[in-house]
Amino acid sequence: MAKKRPQTKAKRPQIADGEIPVVGAREPCPCGSGRRYKACHGRAAAQAVTELVQRPFEGLPGECDWVALRELVPAATAELTLKGGFPEGVPSVTLATVLPMAWPALRRDDGSVLLGLQNDTASGDISRDLADTLQQALAAQPGTPVQGRRAPADGPRLQDLLDPEGTFEPVVHSGFEFWVPDAENATAEVTASLERANAAAIPTVKLTGVDSAYWCETPEKNHLRWVMPHPEEQLLDALARLHAAGTSGLGEGTRLVGSFRAHGLTVPVWDLPSGVGAEDVEKPAAEFAERLAAALATDAPLTPDERRARGGLTNRQVTLS
Hints:
This protein has about 325 residues and is α+β, with helices and mostly antiparallel strands. About 30% of the residues lie in helices and about 15% in strands. The chain has a 6-stranded mixed beta sheet, with helices on one face. A 6-stranded mixed beta sheet has the order 7-8-9-11-10-12. Helix 6 (about 230-245) crosses helix 7 (about 280-295) and helix 6 crosses helix 8. The radius of gyration is 25 Å and the shape is globular. The N and C termini lie far apart (about 70 Å).
């Protein structure tokens, strides 16, 4: 019997990693390895999607306010400055807490860009997802929204696109009229949409005397939520010292009730009587900031009372992200 001739396979064209498209998990990987996509290049893609960046806004001007606008503030905008300036035909780029129809971004008729912050993101790095959406919006035709998608794992982050020397100054709005250039002459459908959104927005005010503190009004009581940049353990120790000393409040009838943990930062929360407005806590908040600075500078071990206070604060901590 004649020997069988050895079988040879033609070499498949090699594809660089950056050129491999996304296919179904059970389909052959486009790289030519012969394995399924999920067992080959899909592994790296899945890891990039699920890997969580704890502080996605770290390094951006106004990191604390980015966190506040992402998690706490219903209606706000902030002007963004790009490295190297705006592309031709783009007069401005504005960050918005939320956009109509939950669009990730919108290129307006005049070429300006609105970038939504409170949308769901496809990966564990909000900064990379927002940067990808921003790039899409800059290239979109005027008058069109941008649809969400999975950002490339090696794509730029906001820190790569925004000017690190630029300012970040949020403007809190009472409603969402910033969605349309001329709200007074909007169509009936747009007007109805604005009315529904405005009715759901909790009244919120940004304090002027301290950084990243936001007063809000609810039917039962008001609150102050203050995003702070200090390391969590150091901040909790300092808050515990003040709480044990009876100096953690913001005036009569106010109470430090706990904190949120959001995007790597800690957000202490105070309950305020319903009659206490934003202007009423400006001075107490500034005085508290001075007490907190002194407590943060203390490195003495916590006393038993301070440890108990710290345990209470930790037990009432809620993670938002």
